[in-house]
Known about the structure:
2 domains; 9 helices; 65% helix; 203 residues; Tetracycline Repressor, domain 2; mainly alpha
Amino acid sequence: MDVKKYHHGDLKNALIQAGIEVLTHEGLAGLSLRKVAKQAGVSHAAPYAHFTDKQAIIAAISTEGYRKLYQCLSDAIDKAKGNPHKQLIETAWAYIQFARQESGCFKIMFSGVLEQEKDYPEFVEVSQRTFALVVDIVKACQKAKILREETPQLLGVVIWGQVHGVISLIFLGQIPHMVLDRYPMREMLIRTMNQLTLVNYSE
């Protein structure tokens, strides 16, 4: 979508997309309502019709990011329907692919800069719904004896944290080249997940 050409009534979405563009190229420090307006090709005052301040547009960008992530994870689950172990791998892989393809949005979603999350019910709802997908996969894998018995929500956090940690190290350039050169990203993910499961996954 060309954020500089929006239809009447679609200004809010155009501003969100413009915000993502600013984040992708300038990072969080470069994000401001003025820059978002410029990127969208509207007046400096236009964003205030939808966003009261910078926090509000951060919440909107994060909410949109979670909606996209939810859809990516749902698609991965559907493609591996009936195979909990494959669903676990495919959703983790979808998470990594999302992080790489939507890097600007991804970074702000997990930056911790959204100060009062409870003030943004749409963000709370979609983020909780996304985590619920992870918990459902954990429960299915536990039932299939792929994951150990543990509180599903806690185990979901552990798995999410493990995958998130890998992608964060990649973004920060902290994984040694001797590892990156030897193992493709998907193989690295599978080996990582095999440290958490009771049964190894192989392709």
